[in-house]
# Entry
Amino acid sequence: MVQLSRRQFMKVTGSTLAGSSLVLMGFSPATALAEVRQYKLAATTVTRQTCTYCSVGCGILIYSLGDGAKNAKRSVVHVEGDPDHPVNRGTLCPKGASLLDFINSPNRLLHPEYRAPGSSEWQRISWDDALDRIARLLKADRDANFVEKTAEGLSVNRWLTTGMLAASAASSEAGYITHKIARSWGLLAFDNQARV
Ligand code: SF4
# Structure
């Protein structure tokens, strides 16, 4: 099929030939434009995700290149609303529509960092070190401050010296499990912008 842009198509039809004849011959600009778009995304992998920004929790489709082969660099090349998602039905607000810039931002934090008390310097640490440290500190604080009973002997099993703020990008299932864990520890100060 001959590829024509919309502008070229209008020029041709306006000068010599009738549009209907061209369509019969396969000169359709709509088909030509659709083919270009399909070609652009044909080699990508599509991943379903949730927008990271706010509690609306819109569904997004992330298109990435790189199939894991040696020397193939993975990169996200396109983000759009998920038309099958019950929350947004394919639409995105301006923040969600700019997610590609957020994903590829050179300022994006990709690794855990630690700043020692009194220091002005951040140092990069591994995920293992970060998670071990968080677990150690949580346990130490809970061991020291967990309240089983009030002075009057009322059972409360609560831990008031630590709070948890979870993220709205979690799915309902992940939110349910997060809630169960926080409450099983005795945490009362627990919130989420999506209200897990
Ligand atoms: S696309 Fe907009 S409304 Fe939807 S979750 Fe993201 S920030 Fe919120």
